[in-house]
Design a protein that fits this description.
By secondary structure, the protein is α/β, with parallel strands linked by helices. It has 14 helices and 18 strands. The protein is globular.
Length: about 475
C-alpha cells in the first residue's frame, strides 16, 4: 500500500537552506519539495495532510552518542532501548547511534551481537552502533575490517577508566593504524585516566568525598593533554580522529590547532557542557551527584569557548552522551565516595530544545542548529543524505517544530526512565509538535503514536568528511 503525506505551509530549515515549502512524503521517503503556494505544490494530493503554518519543518535529530542499558559501576543505565528511543522521539530525535561494548577477553562480534539483541524489536526510531574496544589485540584488530563492512564503521577507545575500558598508547596507535586502512573512524574519550586515578586516591585520602571533587580531580589539563596526545597518535597513524564530549577551553584549543593544520580531527560537545557547570556539581547535600559525568562539568567560563568552537566549526557535533542513572538507588551508590557515583546524565529528550534555545539566545543560527544536531552527525557517521536533511530521496524523518511554544523542562513531564532532570525548572522556547520516522507518525500533536519495533538498524558508510 502506497501512502502519501503532505506537510503544508511550514518553514523548511536544513543545514543549507531555509525555504517556505510544502513537503511530499511517499512510502517512507521525501518525494518532493515545492514552494508553498506554487502550481507544483497545489497539484499534490495525499492520504494525510499536516498543517505546519507558523512552524519549522526540520530533519529529525541524529544523536550520535547514547548509552542505553550500559553496564557501568555495578549497575546499568536506566533507559532501555524501548524507553530511551521513545524519549528521543519526544525530543525530536529520530536516529541514535549507540555504543556496543566489547568485554575484555571477548570478541568484538560477541559484544556487537549482544547489543543487536538488546535493541532488536524494541526501538521506536532508527538506530546504529559504534563499537567500544576494551581489548585491542591481533584478533580484534582483524574484526574491525569486518565491522566496517557491516555498517559499524566507528570504534571508541578510552584513555580513561584504567581496568575497565582503558587502552594504552600502543593499543590506541594500532587501532588507529587499522582504521586508517579500513576507513573506520576512531572516537576518543580523551582524559588521562592514569593520572586521574592518582588524584582520586589522594582526594579520598584527604576526606574529600563529595560529588564536587569528581570535577576537581578530573582536571582540565588532563583532558587537554589527552586530546593533544590522541591527535599526535592519529597523525602518526595517518588516521582521522573524533574526540567525544569535549568540555574544556584548552581541549578545544588543541582541536582548533590541529584543524588549522588541515588535519582530519573532529570534536563533539554535549548540552551539559553548554548549559551546566561546576556550580551544579557543588549543589548542597548529595544533589551534585545528579551531575556527575565524564568528562566532568567545568566552570562556567568554559562555555563561551565551546559556543565559539561550534560557531567556527572547530566543534562539529552536539550529541548527548545520554547515560542516565536514577538519583535514588544508583547515583547514591557513591554517597561517601564520589568515585563510586555512576558517571552519566540523561539528555536524549532535551538536546533539540536546548539547542533551539541557543538560537533564541543568539549563540548559533537556525541553520547551524540543524547542522550540529542533524546534518553533521549524519555526515560524520556515514548516514547522510539518508538521514540529517530534508531532500528528495532522504528518509522521511521529519519534525514539525513550534518555535514559539514555551515549556519548562522537568522530570515530572519528561519521558526518559530516570527520576530527575539535569535541567529541572529551566524554561525554554520551542517545542516538538509532530514527529515522523520514515513517514510514520511517532509523535502526533504531542501524543505518542509510535511503537517498539518500528525503529530499524541502519548500517552506516564511512565518515563522509574524508571522501
Amino acid at each position: 500500500m502506497s501512502t502519501r503525506t503532505l506537510i503544508r505551509g511550514g518553514l523548511v530549515v536544513t543545514a543549507a537552506d531555509e525555504i517556505h515549502a510544502d513537503v511530499l512524503i511517499e512510502d517512507g521517503r521525501i518525494a518532493a519539495l515545492a514552494a508553498h503556494g506554487s502550481d507544483a505544490a497545489a497539484g499534490w494530493t495525499a492520504d494525510r495532510t499536516i498543517d505546519a503554518t507558523d512552524r519549522y519543518v526540520i530533519p529529525g535529530g541524529v544523536d550520535a552518542h547514547t548509552h542505553m542499558e550500559l553496564p557501568f559501576g555495578g549497575t546499568f543505565a536506566s533507559d532501555t532501548f524501548e524507553t530511551g528511543t521513545r524519549a528521543a522521539a519526544w525530543g525530536g530525535t529520530t536516529t541514535i547511534v549507540d555504543f556496543a561494548v566489547q568485554s575484555v577477553g571477548h570478541s568484538l562480534r560477541e559484544g556487537l551481537d549482544t547489543w543487536y539483541a538488546k535493541a532488536d524489536g524494541n526501538c521506536a526510531i532508527d538506530y546504529g552502533f559504534h563499537m567500544i574496544m576494551s581489548d585491542v589485540n591481533e584478533s580484534t584488530l582483524k574484526e574491525m575490517d569486518r565491522l566496517v563492512q557491516e555498517g559499524v564503521s566507528s570504534f571508541k577507545l578510552f584513555m580513561a577508566y584504567p581496568g575497565v575500558f582503558y587502552s594504552d598508547d600502543g593499543q590506541i596507535l594500532r587501532a588507529m593504524q587499522r582504521a586508517a586502512d579500513d576507513g573506520g573512524l576512531i572516537m576518543m574519550h580523551a582524559e588521562n585516566g592514569i593520572a586521574i586515578d592518582v588524584l582520586v586516591e589522594q582526594a579520598l585520602a584527604r576526606g574529600e568525598t563529595d560529588p564536587r571533587y569528581h570535577g576537581e580531580v578530573r582536571k582540565v589539563l588532563l583532558e587537554a593533554e589527552a586530546t593533544h596526545r590522541a591527535i599526535q597518535l592519529a597523525r602518526v597513524a595517518g588516521a582521522p580522529l573524533y574526540v567525544v564530549h569535549v568540555s574544556a577551553e584548552e581541549a578545544v584549543a588543541e582541536l582548533a590547532a590541529a584543524r588549522d593544520k588541515g588535519l582530519p580531527v573532529f570534536g563533539e560537545t554535549c548540552p551539559q557542557y553548554l548549559f551546566l557547570s561546576t556550580d551544579n556539581l557543588a549543589e548542597p547535600g548529595f544533589e551534585g551527584a545528579k551531575y556527575v559525568c565524564s568528562t566532568p562539568l567545568r566552570p562556567k567560563e568554559h562555555q563561551a569557548a565551546l559556543w565559539r568552537g561550534l560557531r567556527t566549526n572547530d566543534l562539529q557535533v552536539v550529541s548527548t552522551d545520554h547515560c542516565p542513572f536514577c538519583f535514588t538507588g544508583q547515583k547514591d551508590l557513591g554517597r561517601g565516595d564520589f568515585s563510586k557515583i555512576p558517571n552519566g546524565l540523561p539528555g536524549v529528550e532535551n538536546r533539540m530544545d536546548l539547542l533551539h534555545q541557543a538560537v533564541v539566545d543568539g549563540h548559533i543560527s537556525r541553520r547551524r542548529w540543524i547542522e550540529i544536531a542533524c546534518a553533521s552527525p549524519a555526515r560524520m557517521f556515514g548516514l547522510y543524505p539518508q538521514k540529517g536533511t530534508i531532500a528528495p530521496g532522504a528518509d522521511a524523518d521529519v519534525v514539525i517544530y513550534d518555535p514559539h511554544a514555551v515549556q519548562t523542562i522537568s522530570a515530572e513531564t519528561h519521558h526518559m526512565n530516570v527520576d530527575y532532570s539535569a535541567y529541572e525548572g529551566r524554561t525554554v522556547t520551542g517545542q516538538v509538535e509532530t514527529v515522523l520516522s520514515r513517514g510514520e507518525l511517532v509523535i502526533d500533536q504531542r501524543k505518542f503514536t509510535g511503537r517498539a519495533g518500528h525503529g530499524a538498524f541502519t548500517p552506516r558508510s564511512t565518515c563522509q568528511y574524508l571522501s
